[in-house]
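Researcher: Please predict.
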Amino acid sequence: MEKIIVDAMGDQCPIPVIKTRNAVSELKEAALVEVEVDNETAVQNVSRFAASKGFSPKAEILGDKRFRITFEASPVSADPEEEISCQPDRRGDTIVVVSSATMGTGNDELGKTLMKGFITAWQRIVSIMHI
């Protein structure tokens, strides 16, 4: 089986996805595709693209800011008009902005109690889900 290496080191989205799409669209027969990137957002977006084509991507960490996504690909036609979707990294720190000390309007004491309950519940969810 032929091996295709896509070097997307230093490229920001959507370039890694576009390079991967172009490599897959040029295949004449099944091949092992290896895409090397330097950020986790690219890992997620290239993996999402490969999965959308029916491939089973596997990602691995090679070192500091060095990742490889590998999948077996068969020839598929690539539509140059196909929209490339790049989503920001959904992992990591979550920021919640609260613009009021109370929840709702009316009774401020009740609003403060509700807000305290909300914040406490959110902290528990975050600690359980590690988000």
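Model: The chain has two domains: 2-73, 92-131.
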